Amino acid sequence: MVSEIGDVSRSAALNGKADRADLGDRLRLALSQYLQCRRLVAAALAALMLSAPALAQSPQPSHIEIRAQPIVSFDNRDKELRRFGKLEFRGGLILTSSAREFGSLSAIRVEPDGGRFIAVTDKGFWLRGRIVYAGSRPAGIADAEIAPMLDANGKPLAARGWFDTEALAEDGGALYVGIERVHRIVKFDYAKDGLRARGVPIPVPAEIASLPWNKGIEALVFVPKGLPLAGTLIAFSERGLDSTGNLKAFLIGGPAPGTFYVRRSDEFDISDAALLPQGDLLVLERRFSWLRGLAVRIRRIALTQIKPGAIVDGPILFFADLGQEVDNMEGISVHRTASGETVLTLVSDDNFSPLQRTILLQFTLLGE
């Protein structure tokens, strides 16, 4: 009996050891699988982290919907009034979109067909699309796309603090963008790469670096062949003043580079500029104070006046204040219709404020 009990005890002990050994094997296997899982998760996270910059380097343009509410009358005090100085009102739009990046338009260039356009926001984004017309009146925006501007490395300009993009000029298929607070101008090969073009900084006069931090480069115009100063990029400061209170502007490249000055009056600052087909400049200006309110005007300046050291001036073609349908007007473009009319397109910067609007206005320049 004792021997039998001993046999049973030895058998049970051996079985217990076997069970414990099997359990240990299972635990070691589970631990191995757990550690392998952790390594796989870590590798996946590392891959995602490595791929994130690559994604940031090549963001895709986004198609967005822009809603348009018509502006039928420009003057709030006289709904029938159509003529304002040398301009005749054609129509306008109040623009809204659910896209988070939409708004704050600071410059625009409308193509010769009067439909397609490219614009910049002062948060470092491109906006392009097509103006839809009802007869001669703008009626909506179609085919709208928005995309971040890219630097030379393919990353968003705004990621490096170059986001105060205020000025836009076109030279054939190249686009120049002025960045106000960092006092830079970058060039994009838009004809080749579209909204994914990369901006390369161009050399600028050393004096541009001394412009006020938030009143620097606000307008750019490129002078094409066949006009005085052909091949020159003209850069206007918003409120970079000389010792006599005139606005500084710069001739970059071209036959006669240098600094010239735009006579400042009545506290107006420059917000954009555009070139008429025959060569005169239209300078869009803006004034704001809590006492005087908001006002905008357009001056015409002959290109032949401009040369290094000159102080230029010209007649006021247009003036508007809060009695009219204006807002923080920051962009102006010129195109000529098939019938020969010279059309001005103006856009506003709403500063992403609920108290301001993004509006697009069009006028015919009379006597052209």
CATH architecture of the largest domain: 5 Propeller
Would you tell me which CATH topology of the largest domain applies? Tachylectin-2, Chain A
Order of helices and strands: HEEEEEEEEEEEHEEEEEEEEEEEEE
Give me the secondary-structure category: alpha+beta
Describe the protein's architecture and organization:
The protein has 368 residues and is an alpha+beta fold. The protein has 2 domains: 1-57; 61-365, Tachylectin-2, Chain A. It contains 2 helices and 24 strands. Strands 2, 3, 4, 22, 23 and 24 form a 6-stranded antiparallel beta sheet that branches. A 5-stranded antiparallel beta sheet has the order 1-8-7-6-5, with no helix packed on it. A hairpin with a 2-residue loop joins strand 9 and strand 10 (174-179). The longest helix is centred in the first third of the chain and has 56 residues, at 2-57. The chain starts with a helix and ends with a strand. Mean pLDDT is 88; it is low at 1-21 and 40-57.
Task: Lay out the secondary structure.
Blueprint: H1 2-57, E1 62-63, E2 67-71, E3 83-84, E4 87-96, E5 105-110, E6 116-121, E7 125-134, E8 137-148, E9 165-171, E10 174-179, E11 184-189, H2 190-193, E12 200-201, E13 217-222, E14 232-241, E15 247-253, E16 258-262, E17 269-275, E18 281-289, E19 293-301, E20 311-312, E21 316-321, E22 329-336, E23 342-348, E24 358-365
Parallel strand pairs: 16-20
Antiparallel strand pairs: 1-8, 2-4, 3-4, 4-24, 5-6, 6-7, 7-8, 9-10, 10-11, 11-12, 13-14, 14-15, 15-16, 17-18, 18-19, 19-21, 22-23, 23-24
